[in-house]
Design a protein that fits this description.
Blueprint lengths: L1 H8 L7 H12 L23 E5 L5 H4 L7 E5 L8 E4 L15 E4 L9 H6 L4 E2 L6 H14 L4 H14 L2 H8 L12 E5 L3 H12 L3 E5 L5 H4 L7 E2 L3 H5 L4 E4 L16 H6 L5 E4 L8 H11 L2 E4 L12 E3 L8 H21 L20 E9 L4 H11 L4 E9 L2 E9 L5 H12 L4 E7 L7 E5 L2 E3 L1
Parallel strand pairs: 1-2, 1-3, 3-4, 4-5, 6-7, 6-9, 7-8, 9-10, 10-11, 11-12
Antiparallel strand pairs: 13-15, 13-16, 14-15, 16-17, 17-18
The structure holds 1,4-dihydronicotinamide adenine dinucleotide (NAI) and 2-oxo-3-(phosphonooxy)propanoic acid.
Length: 465
């Protein structure tokens, strides 16, 4: 019956004949929880029993991917991974139709998750992870570089040397022409850091070492990051106060759409308060800056805009220095971000642990006791869910050994270890279906050591395993 429901959703008429064959032979296998293979209904032809399939987008560091043991994981790129259990990506703008029904988790190898439809993933019960701090040093170094690029006319000087070289005049003119490219020093100047997270705090620290006076603004400053700030930093309670006397302004905040978000936070009000000649460093996201307002400021008051994001208005402005999105493109950052993402996904798939999620609550239980099976259940964050889940176990005469329930926003996450003594697999299969089909439950998993198996979803009243 389950198979026919799924065939209904995945019409076989869409599959070429050889796929039909594979489907038929697979359907002949008698499958039950805890015994051998588990049914899966992505593209049956790309399903490898006994393995988790990881779908990747973008260039993901092989060092990170090597954290997935090949005996339990297969890695496939976007197009070919039609049966994915998890997605690993960088800046790829993820569309909902790229998230197969089989997907249990998504990890962004990096910081910003504005390229992932996070709110929709929460509705679907899918945790989205990122890798806090893994690429922060790379970005911080480029911000420091950006301050120098905005101070010393390095780019103009390089272009000039090319032009001289082409005319064979470089030796004759190199000393005379240097007067055209004078600059200023960072020492003694004021840097305003907007957003004192992993990148902002590190930038503030290094700027102090360079002899700069540092102002900082972050209304949600964490204790962890506060401890990393330089002693001399002057914190402000508003962005305007931080930027108005600054010679350099570094944006290190996430891009968040919608009301209360950060779209165009650097708009008319902030820009018109900026000092003449101020250098704006945007290694965060292009959408944070209102380019029209900034262009007006650059035209009238000088200064520079240095960024690693494209800009339709400023891309050829004489005061803009725009680079490809290179902030995190170092070997070290790519390795660290992909490794952290891989470990986070493994932990989630193999034990149900949640850390570094941007939409799910941090959750971990001690190791599963002997003779137990682990259930994880994702529900809407509404009253009574925990009681209904516990009742379902009690109703099947299953004893809970340990459990945890955490919530965040609209989602609640439960991890429950259940005693297996004296029970057969059918008990677990039945209770999973009962729990998954409770009103308010989004998905469930049974984690018992067989990769790729044990997942079920409540698709608005349809049971999907
Ligand atoms: N250019 C590149 O290649 C990269 C860009 N990024 C961008 O940089 C951003 C920051 O990265 P991390 O420092 O690693 O993140 P993080 O999460 O450690 O820090 C962000 C900080 O911004 C603060 N914040 C949020 N909204 C704010 C607001 N309106 N005003 C002031 N502070 C605010 C938060 O409280 C937090 O402390 C990312 O969200 C991403 O957009 C990150 C990595 C690479
Ligand atoms: O981590 C981030 O937020 C970044 O912007 C880095 O992007 P990337 O992984 O280099 O495409």
């Amino acid at each position: 019956m389950i198979l026919s429901t799924l065939l209904h959703r995945n019409p076989t008429s869409l599959l070429p004949p050889r796929h039909l064959l594979a489907l038929r032979s697979f359907a002949d296998i008698s499958v039950e929880h805890g015994r051998g293979a588990w049914k899966t209904y992505g593209d049956i032809t790309s399903y490898q029993p006994g393995k988790f399939q990881i779908k990747t987008f973008n260039k993901i560091s092989p060092v990170g991917l090597s954290r997935f043991p090949s005996g339990q994981y297969e890695i496939k790129d976007g197009e070919s991974a039609t049966n994915a259990h998890a997605i690993l990506l960088r800046s790829h703008k993820l569309q909902e139709d790229e998230v197969n029904l089989t997907v249990r988790a998504i990890a962004r190898c990096g910081a910003g998750t504005n390229n992932v439809p996070v709110a929709r993933m929460s509705e679907l019960g899918i945790p989205v992870f990122n890798t806090p701090g893994a690429n922060a040093n790379a970005v911080k170094e480029l911000v420091i570089c950006g301050m120098l690029l905005g101070s010393r006319r390095i780019v103009d000087g390089i272009n000039h040397m090319y032009a001289l070289g082409e005319r064979g005049e470089q030796k004759e003119r190199v000393e005379k022409d240097k007067a055209m490219f004078g600059g200023r020093e960072l020492k003694g100047k004021t840097l305003a850091v907007v957003g004192l997270g992993h990148i902002g705090a590190a930038t503030a620290r290094d700027a102090e070492q360079l002899g700069m006076h540092v102002m900082g603004y972050d209304p949600m400053l964490s204790i962890e990051n506060a401890l990393k700030l330089p002693r001399s930093i002057q914190l402000t309670s508003g962005m305007l106060e931080a930027v108005k006397n600054a010679d350099y302004i570094s944006l290190n905040i996430p891009y968040i759409k919608g009301e209360g978000g950060t779209h165009h936070v650097i708009g008319e009000e902030i820009v018109s308060a900026m000092k003449e000649g101020a250098v704006v460093l945007n290694f965060a996201r292009g959408e944070l800056v209102d380019s029209a307002a900034l262009k007006k400021h650059l035209d009238e008051n000088g200064g520079k805009y240095v960024s690693d994001f494209p800009d339709d208005l400023l891309w050829n402005h004489p005061s803009a220095i725009l680079l490809p999105h290179l902030g995190a493109s170092t070997e070290e950052a790519e390795d660290a971000a992909a490794s952290m993402a891989a470990e986070t996904i493994r932990d989630f798939l193999e034990t149900g642990t949640i850390r570094n999620s941007v939409n799910f609550p941090s959750t971990s239980l001690p190791n599963r006791p002997e003779n137990s099976i682990r259930f994880t259940v994702v529900t809407k964050n509404v009253p009574g869910m925990l009681a209904h889940i516990s009742e379902a176990f009690a109703g099947s005469n299953l004893n809970i050994l340990q459990q945890i329930n955490q919530s965040r926003g609209n989602v609640a996450y439960n991890v429950v270890d259940v005693d297996t003594s004296g029970h057969g697999v059918v008990d677990f299969k039945d209770v999973q279906e009962k729990i998954t089909m409770l009103d308010g439950v989004l998905s469930s998993r049974i984690i018992y050591g067989v990769p790729g198996t044990g997942y079920a979803k409540n698709l608005e009243g349809d049971y999907f395993v």
